[in-house]
Amino acid sequence: MTSKSNSSLSKDLSLMLNDSDDYNVIIYVGKNPNIKEFRAHTNILRARSPYFKGALSNLWIRNRNNDNMIEFKKPNINPDVFEIILEYIYTGEVNLTKKSGENILALLIASDELLLDELFELVQDYLIKRSIWVEQNFVLVLHTIYKLSRCKKLQDHCIESICADPQLFFTSKDFLSLDKGILYYLLKRDDLAIEEIILWDYLIDWGIMRNPSLRHRKNRKTKWSNINFETLKETLSRFIPLIRFSGISSADFFDRVRPFKPIIPNYIYEEIMEYHMKNALPKTTFLPPRTGNIQKIESFIIKQKQLNIIINWIDKKNSDYNRNKVDGFYNFDLIYRKSRDKNDEIRDRFADKGPVLILIKELSGKIFGGYNPIGWCKNIRNKYLSTKESFIFSFENNEDTKEMEIEIGRVINSLYAIYDYSRTAVNFGKGDLKLKYDKLTSFDGGVYGHLKKNNNRDEYEVEEIEAFSVNITL
């Protein structure tokens, strides 16, 4: 990613940084044996950074041998990172495309320290968009930014991503080194989409690894002493009350929780036993089931948060509704994928499959889709099919963030909800959303409301198509 000024001033300042010999400050960056000397101009540093405006004041600076050359040290910043910062200070440009994730994260922290607000926001947004690296390094990222209030946007992105799809996070090799404050915050979340018994197992493993004396007992079948249990109890005392024991089956409680009875406070254990034996909800320790949606979809097009939104739409709930077990669980079975199957197989693949969810990604990344609750038949009827439950939708991009633009158009003229036509693969309404193999068109046909359309037929080149049969299990 590159942000450019394209002005001659930027080019001149770049030459001043790289070629000029009239510098008046030397900055020593890094620690032995990785220290690098940078030469710069105090006027530019002070003008561009409030930090340097204070640091290079008469009260802070030290002249070298009375030659008016200022020496300054920044041992806590990596020289590679400071080189990016200095270039940004002089030119207003920064190119992060070939930088490592570690250096970009370090750049975020350094720009915060040096009060480079514009650079800080740019880097934070870039890390959010570079979600794959962040997801692979959640623990590193969270440990780095957790206590920085200005990183709230990236903090929220990480936490929400973990809650929506926690499998990668909890199975990572770094999870067992997770800071206790971050773990506590995650366990408090109602929207953490993970089965409670699995969360319990991860918590026990985390507690064991925090204590060197217990690590050889990673195999839980090893005989534990009272001292071993007391050590683990002390480590996990603040976390145990956050476990939703009522969300754990009786069989799992017996096999995987009961062996650790000594670490559970008596009042909690007794109430949970009463719950499993008498089906009586705990009176003092009850926490509601986590509302995070643990349903999955084998999609290359959408992510977990977008799936949750679509499920809420199917249930006619608000996009941000937090589902729980009483709402039932949806099964999404992949029945067609353009990159895997042939174009002329679309209708055959999802015909006679019952309700179908269609996802379409066009070349710029925008996502379209539609839900047909009555499905299609193999015998194409060339007529309109009626339903009051269908809808079409779009996501402006596939980034799993609060800022993604979403639109839904519910059917308002049910008699024309689905057009079952032999010359198109999918047709919602009177061309409101029509897929003809590699071409997608969107048009205000008057059948679906609240989806931004106009009287022109917007046409898109299709990159990927997916179709899923949809079933609910109560």
Automatic annotation (TrEMBL):
Domain TLDc intervals: 300-471
Organism: Rhizophagus irregularis
Designated name of the protein: BTB-domain-containing protein
Location of the BTB domain: 23-98
SUPFAM superfamilies: POZ domain
PROSITE patterns to which the protein is assigned, alphabetical: BTB, TLDC
